[in-house]
Amino acid sequence: MLPVSVSTTARLASVLAAAALLVAAVSCQKDAEVPANDLAALPLVAPAPTSNVSSPEKIALGRALFWDPVLSGGKDVSCASCHHPATGYADAIELSIGVNGQGLGSARRFRAPNDIAFVKRNSSTVLNTAFNGLTTAATADPASAPMFWDSRAQSLENQSLLPVATLEEMRGHRYAEGVALDSVVARLRRIPAYATMFRAAFAENTPVTATNIGKAIACFERTLVATDSRFDEYMRGNQAALSTQEVAGLNAFVASGCAKCHSGPMLSDYQVHVLGVADNAKNATSDAGVNGTYAFRTPSLRNVALTAPYMHSGTLPTLQAVLNFYDPGRGRAPSANPHVPVSQRDPLFPDRVNDAQAIIAFLGTLTATSYDRTVPAAVPSGLPVGGNIR
Predict the structure, then answer these.
(1) What residue ranges do the domains of the chain occupy?
(2) DSSP secondary-structure letter at 315?
(3) Strand (E) or helix (H) holding 47
């Protein structure tokens, strides 16, 4: 769980503009464990697995599938229902509402009558998930990139199929989990427009398959990258990209120990940590995380200002609340979760938070502006675009 040291020479080019700043910040805290070069700009191009080379046809198909509620059991939920560009490709609520939901973002609610539970965890943004696994120690391997709060799926190809078979997310009661994907495939094969799009995207005798659904959605999601934040500009050499307060916030972010876990180009070490975040009362049982340890993966902070509320349970409504959670420190702040005593907190839990307002200002510089916000006018099934989101 400790950060992996990285060669200064190997990372110098990407962090030259900020190296002196971060060295100064780390020197102010003698026990800091993060090398000065553990923060970096994103690459401009996301990697793709050799088993799923992108093409315009795959992207077009993936975009249609992402927005089409035909993938859900009741034909009322699409990927975009919980990952909409209007809410930073997340959904702006504590726990997602999938099946039997109505509305978009903070206005989303269950329709009556309802016997569907909330989705167990807060919905993460899909922006920049094409870079998942990218750290200062390793390149992003798209075939094994960790997905979800517990890293239970590897690759966008695998991740994109799991909600289709999950009862409260997209499946509902229409069919059993074991036949969910086969049922969706059968639906798509009966839609002429999809038959044409799959044939164009995949040169196979039987192109409409679950595997190809995952491949197409993954190709589309790899276009949802946002690499032009002011932080990226700063790390690429434009020292005027950040204000004095934002630079102070970057200093405080490192000195407070935030960058011990929120490191690398994605500001995540992609490791799991025990923090003791409160459970969400909307869940019937406590969420014990990875293997019952109450550990969850470090989320990326990319575009974090767009994706409140925060943490796996969605119980912290603002960035100020997140910083309050970490302050007054690992050994002093009481645990917010009765199942996680203070003694079990990860040793990388910060000891203190310096200059919270400056840190919040810095986190705002991680917001990129140039990414695809397009909402299609129609989807091949003829169903409402995005599902029941109006």
Answers:
(1) 8-38+229-364, 54-221
(2) -
(3) none
Nearest CA-CA partner of 172 in 105, 110, 220: 110
Q: Are 149 and 139 in contact (CB under 8 A)?
A: no
Q: How many other C-beta atoms can be found within 10 angstroms of the C-beta atom of residue 215?
A: 25
The pTM of the full predicted model, rounded to 2 decimals, is: 0.90
Are 69 and 78 in contact by the 8 Å Cβ rule? The answer is: yes
User: Ramachandran region of residue 342, left (φ > 0), alpha (ψ -120 to 50) or beta?
Assistant: alpha
User: What is the average pLDDT value for the chain, to the nearest integer?
Assistant: 91
Q: How far apart are CA 187 and CA 74, in angstroms?
A: 12
d(Cα 71, Cα 99) in Å, to the nearest integer? 11
Distance CA 222, CA 197 (A): 19
Tokens 């699409």 -> residue: 78
Fold of 54-221: Cytochrome Bc1 Complex; Chain D, domain 2 (1.10.760)
Rounded mean pLDDT, 29-46: 66
